[in-house]
Amino acid sequence: MRRRQLIALVRKDLRLELRTRETIVAMVLFAIVMLAILQFGFGTRDDDLTRFVGGLMWVTLAFTAVLGVGRSYVAEREQRVLDGLLVAPVPRTVMLAAKSIAIFLYMTAVEIVVIPLVGIFFVKGPYWDSIGWIAIAAVLANICIALSGTLFSGLALFTRARDLILPVLFLPALVPVVIAGAGATHAVAGGPHDMGEWRGYCLFLLAYAILFALVSVATYDAVFDD
Amino acid sequence: MVTARGLVHAYGERRAVDGVDLSLAAGERVAVAGANGAGKSTLLRLVATLLRAQSGTLEVLGQEIPGATRAAREGIGYLAHDPLVYLDLTARQNLELYGDLYGIDDRDRRIDDLLGRVGLIGRAEDTVRTFSRGMAQRLALARMLLHRPRLLLLDEPHASLDARGAALLDDELAAATADGRGAIIVTHEVERVARVADRLVVLRAGRVVLDEPTAGLDPMAVRRRYEEVAS
């Protein structure tokens, strides 16, 4: 039954997104605008910004994640549906997993645009053969973002100043993700690949994802039921 | 079906529910009335497991709350002020979602049956955003009944139902006695509910000030009794 509930909740989020196209479109546009601003801010196209590319990419993705996570319970809140989900016999961990999968998919959609754009905007050296390695790091980072984002958006849901509270809670939790994501990207972008460094950052992301999964599973019941 | 003893729930310093005792037997329908702010909706949300009591004991459908909350939730049907459906999903998609959340085996047949009963089968593929308030509330009625709940919890159910929905709800409440379901109906419309309720419970400032049978009483007599104690 839990699998059926999980599939139903994920399908619901995707159906809502396909119908309204509010979250993914906003996230992609925000990321593109931010990358463009960063490019203008850092100088002309002639400058090679390869050594900054990890930071530029992951700061952009972190702020885009805040935007997306902030919208993750908008339908439930604005359309006042949350009580309907909460009174159903759905384990809160299933709700956590479903929302995390939705955020993971939204972030993946953003990265499909952002990762190539970063190469076009900022990198003069070899980049395209690194995309696979960057994508693997991005998948791990997305798991961290999805789990921590779901937990903090759940916490912020019941506060009055939720739009302020969420970034205050969520951005500090993203700092390790930005550091590791940027490090993994830097290790493979724009030159010889340092696979040892890349592997180390990816293992860190994996450990962080496991940590947040444990914290989320341990606390999500309390978020919704207390 | 429901046994509450000394239930307390406070919002900050203010006790919305202040030591309430309430019981509901199988097949019984209890109307809970009171002035605005008397604690009716808070009491209903406690029984619906949407709020946690700060003190007192609560048993719903034989399950201790909060210990066995999920098992109790399987048997609860909750109709709130809001329809609790997604405006950007169709009527059918909303019921499919809830059907899956409750693990209903004959989901699609049940959905068709309920959409027919609430008069929405012709609008099943339309998004709820295109519905009138009354139609959305009829869909909410279908949502509440979808998993064949043993305990119906209704918050001002007649307030936004149109005539067809209200008639269907009254039929469901009447049928509840026959098949052993229970219902708690929070209401301002004391006379209307008096026709289908077996007992009237009146709250004032979070406390029970009246708990009397209404069977055989004239609805106007029930209204007068309510007004004597409610304010």
Radius of gyration of chain B: 17 Å
Number of strands of chain A: 0
Number of discrete helical segments of chain B: 8
How far apart are the first and last residues' alpha carbons of chain B, in Å?
Answer: 29 Å
The unreliable regions of chain A are none
Silhouette of chain A: globular
| Order of SSEs of chain A | HHHHHHHHH
Q: Name the chain pair with the biggest interface and residue counts per chain.
A: A-B, 27 and 30 residues
Give the rounded overall mean pLDDT of chain A. Answer: 90
Largest sheet of chain A: none
Overall pLDDT score of chain B = 89
Broad structural category of chain B: alpha/beta
Order of helical and strand elements of chain B = EEEHEEHEHHHEHEHEEH
* Strand elements of chain B, count: 10
Oligomer: heterodimer
Percentage of β-strand residues of chain B: 25-35%
Radius of gyration of chain A over alpha carbons?
A: 18 Å
Uncertain residue segments of chain B: none
Describe this protein's structure.
With 226 residues, chain A is mostly helical. In chain A, 81% of the residues lie in helices and 0% in strands. Chain A is built from nine helices and no strands. In chain A, helix 2 runs antiparallel to helix 3 and helix 8 (162-188) packs antiparallel against helix 9 (195-225). The model of chain A has no long low-confidence stretch (mean pLDDT 90). In chain B, helix 3 packs across helix 4 (107-117). The mean pLDDT of chain B is 89. The chains are: A mainly alpha (226), B alpha/beta (231). Chains A and B meet through helix 1 and helix 5 of A and helix 2 and helix 3 of B.
